[in-house]
């Protein structure tokens, strides 16, 4: 079921719409699915995706459901498949494409399934083929050219991305300022998998990352047994939530806004949720409060500049009256109101040389197949596939999503 309800927020009209992507699969499937949450209002309206259109709907009470997708189908007007090999700045080993082998809906669940690139092209293709994602129609254009994201050619030294995967975003359909977003999901299990449920701003009103913020509801490392230097388990039973914010790189205050928990994230469905307003932001795993941030009167600049010691002239949030900047909706720049709303991203990444899988950690059974300093990471990773690929047990290695919902929590949101 897909529900979209239009909202008027601070004089800006926003329409909401959700879509899902279909495809039958033969893999064995965990069919556990919780009962749909009751809609907290009696008058429901279903809208087609009409961005920035006014809707004749007002919430009679709160919390008020304004967006819902329970994945009867995969609506590509709501969930745009990203198409890029860029690796998100981390030189990850997957590439994202619009493919029903890696993102599909079955039995009311959205499934994001990473698979070897060689399944489609053959193993020799990694060292000799070319992948072009440029496209020529609105629906098949490359979505990220940074880091050679739209076209690559493999050679014996620099392999093409050895994994195909999926990353879906709601940037062109549903965006939110304040309220509650919740995603009920079971996360993947398998060595070097990196699933994430997160949010980015539709417009970088305060500047490029991390100045306009990032909200990570959850991310894990899918490894069956990965330990840090102290022997703590950092694999699929350890999940984290994080906010990224800062004036510009390398200044990122995320270490002050992190939370983590141990649990059965890859074996059970959990509701990952963020709630935020003009004073605080909270992230929950089911009913467990994992991260709470209430910035001081000076906002995130005051929080971060205790360590950065930068001149106030570099504060990107100085023009906002909200202590929640950059996690607010509006920024005043040269007396112009700039909209800053967040959209939802669902993805399964793999590996990378950006440090998410530290070289100093210990993986049971075999060592990490590549070093973060390596210039041939994709090749190193793929050449050891006999070690890690057996840990990807069918759809246990997939992210399975039951539902995505968003709520308006009060009339002033």
Automatic annotation (TrEMBL):
One Pfam family of this chain: Glyco_hydro_16
SUPFAM superfamilies hit by this protein: Concanavalin A-like lectins/glucanases
Keywords from the UniProt entry: Signal
GH16 domain span: 55-412
Region feature Disordered, mapped onto this chain: 20-40
Residues of the signal peptide: 1-18
Basic and acidic residues compositional bias, start-end: 27-38
Coiled coil location: none
Key word Cytoplasm present: no
Any Gene Ontology biological process: carbohydrate metabolic process
PROSITE patterns attached to this UniProt entry: GH16_2 (PS51762), PROKAR_LIPOPROTEIN (PS51257)
GO molecular function: hydrolase activity, hydrolyzing O-glycosyl compounds
Protein origin, superkingdom: Eukaryota
InterPro entries associated with the record: Beta-glucanase-like, ConA-like_dom_sf, Glycosyl_Hydrlase_16
Family: Belongs to the glycosyl hydrolase 16 family.
PANTHER family: GLYCOSIDE HYDROLASE FAMILY 16 PROTEIN, GLYCOSYL HYDROLASE-RELATED
Protein name, as recorded: GH16 domain-containing protein
